[in-house]
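User: Fold this; tokens only.

Assistant: Input:
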Amino acid sequence: MSEMTYQRAHVTSAAGAPPDGAGRFLRRLPIRLLLAVLVAIEALPMLWLLLGSFKTQDDFLNRPFYALPSRFDLDNYVSAFTTGDLGQYIRNSVIAVFPALFVALLIGVAAAFALEVMVFKGRGFILIAFLAGIMVPGQMILLPLFTVYFKAHLTGTLWPLLITYTAISLPLIVFMMTTYFRAVPRELFEAATIDGAGIFRTFWSVGVPIVRNAIITVGMVQFFFIWNDLLIAITFTNSQSLQTIQVGLLNFTGPYGSIQYGPLFAAICVSVFGTLLIYLFLNQRIMRGLAAGSIKG
């Protein structure tokens, strides 16, 4: 009797079993095809850019765009750094971007902590004033800023870029970090206060570690924005020795304005894949930071 019951149960479970492997594959096939198309849209241009960095000028002018390089060597990269001064452009970008980003994050995170955690009169108006900075188009401030920098004798240096990058980064940093601090339970800050921690100790020992991933996320967003900036950099750099990498890419031209495509593609590869490596290195922290703002408590 028990054997017959077992056979009936086996037949019933087999009848209600999920589809086999082929059925699951066909059901997921449209999603996989869509993902493959999206990956191709992202990867193929980068592959074309990478292959182009190895092509000679003759390859660009006399062969189809889809043809492989006639040879694979690093001549274009060497030319980009020696003849094209790519190293100098990268150094200027590093000097202009990283200190400005550090100062903007320091001030922006502290301001967001004060506006969201501390209670004082007028904090709503201050937050609105920061948010108003997001709505100001960058093109409107270039001429007034250039006049101020010229009268302050700051032109001819990288200080205009440092100051401008810091200022334009603050509104978005304050806005986003305020949202992240809003998701932190107030009991944590109250417990720190009860334990005798001052406001600065609470900020450095409680606030900053909790939103560390969010700081990295916001910092990466602003980093890509100011690293890829062209308009501000080309406005405030009046000599080739001060140009950032995005402005320097405009100088990869030969006699009579002819473009040297090989060194240009090599320089673009250094910029694009360099920032891509930074993103891949911090990818997990960025994903956790993006998710942190949507979780309360």
